[in-house]
């Protein structure tokens, strides 16, 4: 049975559907019936069976075109952004037409940014097929592409028309990518949602085995947490920044490896550990809480080693982060487990110390 919840502000509310076999006429047709043309943007890592299934449903009501990108973070580029825009122009898409983002976070981010930019904005739908995209990037309206200077530095806030999450798509997801998505789920528990955190602590084995009941519940709780935060601060002027817990360091680790050595969630897991260590060094959390966080990350089989990273190597990327304002770095730290805070008053020496403890 599908669960439903809403995100976005009152003027741009959109429905999120979560469940098994939701990639169906029942949920897709109402979202596309008013559109003359649909562009499905996907990547070559998505099983053709899923792409063909969505295409066949859409063809009952509209003309369908496809753009298939190469799988991987490198596809979230200015070159692909231009390529998709030119394809939309070539196929004579207008403001009454629609984009469907079918894939993981890379596909969703670039598709959303294209939708926000083309003709100053056309509608798009998110159909996320990875756990990472389902619990994080498909909800909240952040769209972006990467440039050589860093990740997600060019983008826009732009909400989708709707989000359809089918947990069946996770069955074909490689183990490493599934675990990468779990980092974002853990994040929601660590920054705010105590109930989600207890679910994760008590059901780590069930989660790793991808049991349907627990997977649906952690997705629902993750999105509920994100939606609540985003509604309170849609354009990231304050509270919403806590969603970036672990990301300042995680993004730096990704950029340092040119987005090839490590998956986003793997980097975020390391980043959350670093941020937790800084929280401890800043006397915000006791050692026992730091140990609990480290144990939780290890329960989900994350590699937490920092041996190959030096703060001096990551510092240039850290200070290009979007959370730098007026030359000051805003860090997301923990006041306690399940309570995050934003601060730009910290001992800078603790950033490098965190890599050594």
From TrEMBL:
Chain sites annotated for binding NAD(+): 105-109, 129-130, 142, 151
GO biological process, alphabetically ordered: amino acid biosynthetic process; aromatic amino acid family biosynthetic process; chorismate biosynthetic process
Enzyme's top EC category: lyase
Major location (coarse): cytoplasm
Organism: SAR86 cluster bacterium SAR86E
Annotated positions binding Zn(2+): 184, 247, 264
Sorted UniProt keywords: Amino-acid biosynthesis, Aromatic amino acid biosynthesis, Cobalt, Cytoplasm, Lyase, Metal-binding, NAD, Nucleotide-binding, Zinc
Protein name as catalogued: 3-dehydroquinate synthase
Short name of one Pfam family: DHQS_C
GO MF annotations, alphabetized: 3-dehydroquinate synthase activity; metal ion binding; nucleotide binding
EC number: 4.2.3.4
UniProt-listed NCBIfam families: aroB (TIGR01357)
Localization, UniProt: Cytoplasm
Domain 3-dehydroquinate synthase N-terminal: 68-179
UniProt function note: Catalyzes the conversion of 3-deoxy-D-arabino-heptulosonate 7-phosphate (DAHP) to dehydroquinate (DHQ).
Record HAMAP family: DHQ_synthase
